[in-house]
Amino acid sequence: MDQILFALLNGTIYGLLLFMVSAGLTLIFGMMGVLNFAHASFYMLGAYFAYTLQPLTGFWLAIILAPILVMGVGILVERFILRHVHEHGHAHELLVTFGLSVVIAEMIKMVYGKFAVDYRLPAELNFAAFSLSGIDYPFYRLFMGGIAIGMFIAIYLLLTKTRVGIVVRSAIYRPQMVEALGHNVPMVFMGVFGIGAALAGLAGAVAGAFYTTNPNMALELGVMVFVVVVVGGLGSMGGAMAASLLIGITNSLAVGSDFRLADLMTWVGMGGFAEEVGGLLTMRMSSLAATLPFFIMLLVLVLRPSGLMGEKE
After folding, report:
1. Are 225 and 40 in contact (CB under 8 A)?
2. Considering only CA atoms, which of 39, 30, 34 is closest in space to residue 172?
3. pTM score
4. Pick from 230, 289, 278, 283: which is nearest to 256 by CA?
5. Taking residues 63-73, what's their average pLDDT?
6. Is the per-residue pLDDT at 267 higher than 90?
Protein backbone atom coordinates (compact mmCIF):
# COMPACT_ATOMS: atom_id res chain seq x y z
CA MET A 1 0.00 0.00 0.00
CA ASP A 2 2.81 2.40 0.86
CA GLN A 3 4.45 1.59 -2.47
CA ILE A 4 1.27 2.55 -4.32
CA LEU A 5 0.99 5.75 -2.31
CA PHE A 6 4.58 6.69 -3.16
CA ALA A 7 3.91 5.92 -6.84
CA LEU A 8 0.81 8.14 -6.79
CA LEU A 9 2.73 10.97 -5.12
CA ASN A 10 5.66 10.70 -7.50
CA GLY A 11 3.32 10.48 -10.49
CA THR A 12 1.37 13.52 -9.35
CA ILE A 13 4.53 15.59 -8.87
CA TYR A 14 5.93 14.46 -12.22
CA GLY A 15 2.60 15.31 -13.83
CA LEU A 16 2.67 18.77 -12.25
CA LEU A 17 6.21 19.25 -13.60
CA LEU A 18 4.94 18.34 -17.07
CA PHE A 19 2.20 20.92 -16.61
CA MET A 20 4.71 23.59 -15.59
CA VAL A 21 6.51 23.11 -18.90
CA SER A 22 3.47 22.51 -21.09
CA ALA A 23 1.52 25.47 -19.64
CA GLY A 24 3.64 27.95 -21.58
CA LEU A 25 3.31 25.96 -24.81
CA THR A 26 -0.45 25.67 -24.30
CA LEU A 27 -0.70 29.40 -23.65
CA ILE A 28 1.34 30.25 -26.76
CA PHE A 29 -0.63 27.94 -29.03
CA GLY A 30 -3.99 28.84 -27.53
CA MET A 31 -3.37 32.58 -27.83
CA MET A 32 -1.23 32.75 -30.98
CA GLY A 33 -1.62 29.44 -32.81
CA VAL A 34 2.17 28.96 -32.78
CA LEU A 35 3.61 25.45 -32.47
CA ASN A 36 6.92 26.14 -30.75
CA PHE A 37 9.22 23.11 -31.02
CA ALA A 38 11.89 25.01 -29.08
CA HIS A 39 9.68 25.43 -26.01
CA ALA A 40 11.54 22.76 -24.01
CA SER A 41 14.75 24.66 -24.80
CA PHE A 42 13.38 27.57 -22.75
CA TYR A 43 12.93 25.07 -19.91
CA MET A 44 16.60 24.13 -20.26
CA LEU A 45 17.69 27.78 -20.41
CA GLY A 46 15.82 28.44 -17.15
CA ALA A 47 17.78 25.68 -15.40
CA TYR A 48 21.14 26.88 -16.71
CA PHE A 49 20.42 30.55 -15.99
CA ALA A 50 19.44 29.66 -12.41
CA TYR A 51 22.59 27.54 -12.04
CA THR A 52 24.71 30.48 -13.23
CA LEU A 53 22.98 33.00 -10.98
CA GLN A 54 22.80 30.87 -7.82
CA PRO A 55 26.42 31.51 -6.65
CA LEU A 56 25.92 35.26 -7.22
CA THR A 57 22.41 35.85 -5.92
CA GLY A 58 21.42 32.78 -3.92
CA PHE A 59 18.77 30.22 -4.84
CA TRP A 60 15.62 32.27 -4.25
CA LEU A 61 16.65 35.26 -6.32
CA ALA A 62 18.06 32.96 -8.99
CA ILE A 63 14.71 31.22 -9.60
CA ILE A 64 13.07 34.66 -9.90
CA LEU A 65 15.64 36.20 -12.24
CA ALA A 66 16.09 33.12 -14.47
CA PRO A 67 12.48 33.18 -15.83
CA ILE A 68 12.82 36.92 -16.48
CA LEU A 69 15.95 36.29 -18.56
CA VAL A 70 14.19 33.49 -20.43
CA MET A 71 11.27 35.84 -21.05
CA GLY A 72 13.71 38.27 -22.66
CA VAL A 73 15.01 35.51 -24.92
CA GLY A 74 11.43 34.54 -25.82
CA ILE A 75 10.52 38.12 -26.69
CA LEU A 76 13.55 38.41 -28.97
CA VAL A 77 12.68 35.11 -30.66
CA GLU A 78 9.11 36.20 -31.32
CA ARG A 79 10.05 39.69 -32.51
CA PHE A 80 12.92 38.85 -34.83
CA ILE A 81 12.23 35.25 -35.90
CA LEU A 82 8.69 33.94 -35.45
CA ARG A 83 6.90 37.13 -36.46
CA HIS A 84 8.39 36.81 -39.94
CA VAL A 85 7.38 33.16 -40.47
CA HIS A 86 4.02 33.06 -38.67
CA GLU A 87 2.08 34.05 -41.78
CA HIS A 88 3.52 31.08 -43.71
CA GLY A 89 1.85 28.49 -41.48
CA HIS A 90 2.68 25.81 -38.93
CA ALA A 91 5.19 23.94 -41.10
CA HIS A 92 7.50 26.95 -41.26
CA GLU A 93 7.10 27.57 -37.51
CA LEU A 94 8.00 23.98 -36.68
CA LEU A 95 11.05 24.01 -38.93
CA VAL A 96 12.31 27.33 -37.60
CA THR A 97 11.74 26.46 -33.94
CA PHE A 98 13.30 23.02 -34.46
CA GLY A 99 16.40 24.73 -35.82
CA LEU A 100 16.32 27.15 -32.91
CA SER A 101 16.21 24.26 -30.41
CA VAL A 102 19.31 22.74 -32.01
CA VAL A 103 21.13 26.09 -31.90
CA ILE A 104 20.28 26.59 -28.21
CA ALA A 105 21.41 23.06 -27.32
CA GLU A 106 24.73 23.54 -29.12
CA MET A 107 25.29 26.92 -27.45
CA ILE A 108 24.67 25.33 -24.04
CA LYS A 109 27.27 22.67 -24.83
CA MET A 110 29.78 25.31 -25.96
CA VAL A 111 29.38 27.36 -22.77
CA TYR A 112 28.77 24.70 -20.09
CA GLY A 113 30.17 21.55 -21.67
CA LYS A 114 28.49 18.29 -22.64
CA PHE A 115 28.02 16.93 -19.12
CA ALA A 116 25.62 17.72 -16.28
CA VAL A 117 26.38 20.75 -14.12
CA ASP A 118 26.36 20.81 -10.32
CA TYR A 119 23.06 22.64 -9.77
CA ARG A 120 21.97 21.59 -6.28
CA LEU A 121 19.12 22.12 -3.87
CA PRO A 122 19.67 24.78 -1.21
CA ALA A 123 20.30 23.30 2.22
CA GLU A 124 17.16 24.88 3.70
CA LEU A 125 14.96 22.92 1.26
CA ASN A 126 16.85 19.65 1.34
CA PHE A 127 14.89 17.75 3.99
CA ALA A 128 12.16 15.13 4.24
CA ALA A 129 8.53 16.24 4.35
CA PHE A 130 7.41 12.95 5.92
CA SER A 131 8.29 9.27 6.12
CA LEU A 132 6.38 6.15 5.10
CA SER A 133 7.64 2.69 6.04
CA GLY A 134 10.99 4.22 6.90
CA ILE A 135 11.35 5.93 3.50
CA ASP A 136 11.74 9.72 3.49
CA TYR A 137 9.77 11.77 0.97
CA PRO A 138 11.63 14.93 -0.15
CA PHE A 139 9.96 18.22 0.71
CA TYR A 140 11.28 19.72 -2.53
CA ARG A 141 8.98 17.48 -4.58
CA LEU A 142 6.00 18.99 -2.75
CA PHE A 143 7.53 22.44 -3.26
CA MET A 144 7.61 21.87 -7.04
CA GLY A 145 4.04 20.65 -6.99
CA GLY A 146 2.92 23.72 -5.05
CA ILE A 147 4.55 26.04 -7.59
CA ALA A 148 2.81 24.19 -10.45
CA ILE A 149 -0.60 24.52 -8.77
CA GLY A 150 0.06 28.20 -8.06
CA MET A 151 1.03 28.68 -11.72
CA PHE A 152 -2.24 27.10 -12.89
CA ILE A 153 -4.33 29.33 -10.60
CA ALA A 154 -2.40 32.46 -11.61
CA ILE A 155 -2.80 31.78 -15.36
CA TYR A 156 -6.51 31.04 -14.95
CA LEU A 157 -7.15 34.23 -13.00
CA LEU A 158 -5.04 36.31 -15.41
CA LEU A 159 -6.91 35.10 -18.48
CA THR A 160 -10.44 35.14 -17.05
CA LYS A 161 -10.54 37.84 -14.39
CA THR A 162 -8.32 40.67 -15.62
CA ARG A 163 -8.47 43.27 -18.36
CA VAL A 164 -5.19 41.96 -19.76
CA GLY A 165 -6.73 38.52 -20.21
CA ILE A 166 -9.75 39.97 -21.99
CA VAL A 167 -7.52 41.89 -24.42
CA VAL A 168 -5.36 38.82 -25.08
CA ARG A 169 -8.34 36.52 -25.72
CA SER A 170 -10.00 39.12 -27.90
CA ALA A 171 -6.84 39.58 -29.96
CA ILE A 172 -7.04 35.92 -31.01
CA TYR A 173 -10.48 36.07 -32.60
CA ARG A 174 -10.92 39.76 -33.45
CA PRO A 175 -7.44 41.26 -33.96
CA GLN A 176 -8.72 44.07 -36.22
CA MET A 177 -11.31 45.13 -33.66
CA VAL A 178 -8.76 45.06 -30.83
CA GLU A 179 -6.36 47.14 -32.92
CA ALA A 180 -9.13 49.60 -33.72
CA LEU A 181 -9.68 50.06 -29.98
CA GLY A 182 -6.09 51.24 -29.64
CA HIS A 183 -4.29 48.05 -28.58
CA ASN A 184 -1.04 46.99 -30.24
CA VAL A 185 -1.84 43.40 -31.28
CA PRO A 186 1.74 42.43 -32.29
CA MET A 187 2.91 43.73 -28.90
CA VAL A 188 0.23 41.64 -27.17
CA PHE A 189 1.35 38.51 -28.99
CA MET A 190 5.00 39.26 -28.21
CA GLY A 191 4.10 39.59 -24.53
CA VAL A 192 2.17 36.30 -24.58
CA PHE A 193 5.13 34.50 -26.15
CA GLY A 194 7.46 36.02 -23.58
CA ILE A 195 5.23 34.94 -20.69
CA GLY A 196 4.98 31.42 -22.14
CA ALA A 197 8.76 31.24 -22.34
CA ALA A 198 9.06 32.56 -18.78
CA LEU A 199 6.75 29.80 -17.48
CA ALA A 200 9.01 27.19 -19.06
CA GLY A 201 12.04 29.00 -17.63
CA LEU A 202 10.52 28.93 -14.15
CA ALA A 203 9.91 25.19 -14.49
CA GLY A 204 13.54 24.67 -15.46
CA ALA A 205 14.87 26.87 -12.68
CA VAL A 206 12.87 24.96 -10.07
CA ALA A 207 13.14 21.42 -11.45
CA GLY A 208 16.77 21.70 -12.54
CA ALA A 209 17.92 21.75 -8.94
CA PHE A 210 16.17 18.45 -8.21
CA TYR A 211 16.58 16.59 -11.49
CA THR A 212 19.72 16.58 -13.62
CA THR A 213 20.62 19.81 -15.41
CA ASN A 214 22.32 18.72 -18.63
CA PRO A 215 22.33 19.65 -22.35
CA ASN A 216 19.89 16.83 -23.15
CA MET A 217 17.18 17.83 -20.68
CA ALA A 218 15.17 19.67 -23.34
CA LEU A 219 15.20 16.61 -25.59
CA GLU A 220 14.26 14.30 -22.70
CA LEU A 221 11.17 16.32 -21.77
CA GLY A 222 10.31 18.04 -25.05
CA VAL A 223 8.52 15.14 -26.74
CA MET A 224 6.50 14.40 -23.59
CA VAL A 225 5.39 18.03 -23.40
CA PHE A 226 3.95 17.83 -26.92
CA VAL A 227 2.17 14.60 -25.97
CA VAL A 228 0.60 16.41 -22.99
CA VAL A 229 -0.58 19.32 -25.15
CA VAL A 230 -2.10 17.00 -27.77
CA VAL A 231 -3.83 14.75 -25.21
CA GLY A 232 -5.19 17.70 -23.23
CA GLY A 233 -6.37 19.57 -26.29
CA LEU A 234 -4.43 22.23 -28.18
CA GLY A 235 -4.81 25.52 -26.34
CA SER A 236 -6.69 24.14 -23.32
CA MET A 237 -5.04 24.98 -20.00
CA GLY A 238 -7.39 22.70 -18.04
CA GLY A 239 -6.74 19.96 -20.57
CA ALA A 240 -2.98 20.38 -20.14
CA MET A 241 -3.34 19.95 -16.38
CA ALA A 242 -5.58 16.87 -16.74
CA ALA A 243 -3.32 15.28 -19.36
CA SER A 244 -0.18 16.00 -17.31
CA LEU A 245 -1.60 14.29 -14.23
CA LEU A 246 -2.97 11.38 -16.29
CA ILE A 247 0.39 10.73 -17.97
CA GLY A 248 2.44 11.33 -14.83
CA ILE A 249 0.41 9.01 -12.60
CA THR A 250 0.01 6.31 -15.28
CA ASN A 251 3.73 6.29 -15.99
CA SER A 252 4.66 6.18 -12.30
CA LEU A 253 2.30 3.29 -11.54
CA ALA A 254 3.48 1.37 -14.61
CA VAL A 255 7.16 1.67 -13.68
CA GLY A 256 6.59 -0.24 -10.44
CA SER A 257 4.17 -2.80 -11.85
CA ASP A 258 4.97 -6.43 -12.73
CA PHE A 259 1.60 -6.95 -14.44
CA ARG A 260 1.57 -8.92 -17.72
CA LEU A 261 -1.19 -9.54 -20.25
CA ALA A 262 -0.42 -13.24 -19.78
CA ASP A 263 -1.52 -12.92 -16.13
CA LEU A 264 -4.86 -11.49 -17.27
CA MET A 265 -5.33 -14.27 -19.81
CA THR A 266 -4.72 -16.85 -17.09
CA TRP A 267 -8.08 -15.91 -15.59
CA VAL A 268 -9.83 -17.15 -18.74
CA GLY A 269 -7.71 -20.28 -19.06
CA MET A 270 -5.41 -19.01 -21.80
CA GLY A 271 -2.29 -18.51 -19.66
CA GLY A 272 -0.43 -21.41 -21.30
CA PHE A 273 -1.19 -20.07 -24.77
CA ALA A 274 0.07 -16.60 -23.79
CA GLU A 275 3.30 -18.04 -22.41
CA GLU A 276 3.88 -19.97 -25.64
CA VAL A 277 3.24 -16.93 -27.84
CA GLY A 278 5.41 -14.69 -25.63
CA GLY A 279 6.34 -11.29 -26.99
CA LEU A 280 4.03 -8.49 -25.90
CA LEU A 281 1.85 -10.89 -23.92
CA THR A 282 4.65 -11.75 -21.51
CA MET A 283 6.29 -8.32 -21.23
CA ARG A 284 5.93 -6.69 -17.83
CA MET A 285 4.17 -3.35 -17.56
CA SER A 286 7.35 -1.75 -16.23
CA SER A 287 9.05 -2.49 -19.57
CA LEU A 288 6.26 -0.69 -21.44
CA ALA A 289 6.06 2.35 -19.14
CA ALA A 290 7.96 4.62 -21.54
CA THR A 291 5.51 3.87 -24.37
CA LEU A 292 2.31 4.34 -22.36
CA PRO A 293 2.06 8.14 -22.88
CA PHE A 294 2.19 7.60 -26.66
CA PHE A 295 -0.43 4.86 -26.43
CA ILE A 296 -2.66 7.26 -24.46
CA MET A 297 -2.11 9.94 -27.12
CA LEU A 298 -3.01 7.49 -29.89
CA LEU A 299 -6.14 6.40 -28.04
CA VAL A 300 -7.25 10.00 -27.43
CA LEU A 301 -6.64 11.00 -31.05
CA VAL A 302 -8.74 8.07 -32.27
CA LEU A 303 -11.63 8.56 -29.84
CA ARG A 304 -11.53 12.36 -29.43
CA PRO A 305 -9.25 14.10 -31.96
CA SER A 306 -9.69 17.50 -30.30
CA GLY A 307 -8.17 16.20 -27.04
CA LEU A 308 -9.66 15.73 -23.58
CA MET A 309 -10.77 19.34 -23.20
CA GLY A 310 -10.03 20.83 -26.61
CA GLU A 311 -12.70 22.67 -28.56
CA LYS A 312 -14.30 20.71 -31.39
CA GLU A 313 -14.02 22.46 -34.72
Report:
1. yes
2. 30
3. 0.90
4. 289
5. 97
6. no
